[in-house]
Amino acid sequence: MTPLESLQAALAGEHAAIHVYGVLGGRVSVSDAPATAAAVRSAYDTHRARRDQLHTLVRELGGEPVAPAVAYDLTGPATSTEQIESEARGLESRSAAVYAQAVASTVGAPRQWAIDALTDAAVRSLGFAGEPEAYPGLPELN
Amino acid sequence: MPTRRTVLTAAVMAGALAACTAEGAGSDTVPTSTPDFVATKRALAAAAAAVELIDKVTLGHSQRKRALAQTRSIHVAHLELLTLPLAEGSVTSEPHLSPGPPFRGDDRAAYLAVAKEEDLCGQTLRRIAFQAESGQLARVFAGMAAATAQQSVVLRGLL
Prior knowledge:
The structure holds 2 protein chains of 2 kinds. By secondary structure, chain A is mostly helical. In chain A, 68% of the residues lie in helices and 0% in strands. Chain A has helices at 3-27, 34-60, 81-105, 108-126. Chain A is globular. By secondary structure, chain B is mainly α. Chain B is elongated and about 45 Å long.
């Protein structure tokens, strides 16, 4: 995978994350699950910031940033707090794998960006009742 | 006996290390003087230091040993993965470390010390992930760094 391809894949992932967190933010109860609501809000803001950073990185490599899809499917019903957390964990796990690929495919500033994003996704998943792993973002080693 | 996973991952690691030099490309042998080999040794040293500290703080403390079992097992897994390709297949599931004198301090001080060691280990891993010549090796180091960040958060939750 070329550096540009890996960053475009990461950008496509950010588009999906922003959409899904937007949906989750509309479903999570601020009064019943304030910690989860705050975590969803924080994740939404973070992925929006990453999307903007990736736009810049893609353009710096001479690419045209990939556009978001019309819609994205959730993997489950995501109505209870547990289901919302599960959806968020899955999202961060998939994001971590994409970031890890970007680490492998890039050098310099984009690689540093991907290393930071991978670490953040791994830590963020803990806020959604995730379990620590030996190799976040590297499913074949866990 | 090495598990199928450790054999598989050792092959990945050996390939990543060998691929970083033209000399090593296509060879089963691991070059020992490349920047990536040196980086791997630094990662090993960081993981070994983390295990050594955990062994110090848990010596004679069964409760701490339970609390830090996961952190220790993750570093042992990292050591195993990093050691396998360098040791030509000789596998040790536990590092041979001398923990030294026991840690002096209460539980809070113990967990905080281990959390700080996780931060230190993570900084090292992030740095060598950034510098690695092999992209695959960089990916592995970055994953390890992310694991230490998770452990740091979990340990600070014990304080």
